[in-house]
Amino acid sequence: MAVTRIVPYARTTDLDASREFYVGVLGLDVAMRDPVLGLTSPANPTAQLIVQPRTAGEPEPHFGVDVGDPAAVDAAHAAVRELGLRVVYPLTNEAWGVRRFFVEDPGGTVINVLAHLE
Question: Binning pLDDT at 50, 70 and 90, where does residue 118 land?
Fold first, then answer.
């Protein structure tokens, strides 16, 4: 497994206002608009931020770890289950092209483990 990037997540109640701030004030580029706002640095496209709407009742990961490919997501999921860690969002192929699951680490931080589908 090769971690290709770690992406911090921010929460918002107003995606448009957040986009205006991150693009207009900080100069980030919009890379994705749906289902979340994905932003990248024009100087370093691997420097990324995901802005998500606040949702009630759904697990909210603190950050995402891209493990490179869907098979690595499956391997990480198997390792998490073997360790008895809590999976708070099931292993899923999302319509927007990622395979992922959310796990709670031993300290209680929720992590989105993902890879883009081919």
Answer: confident
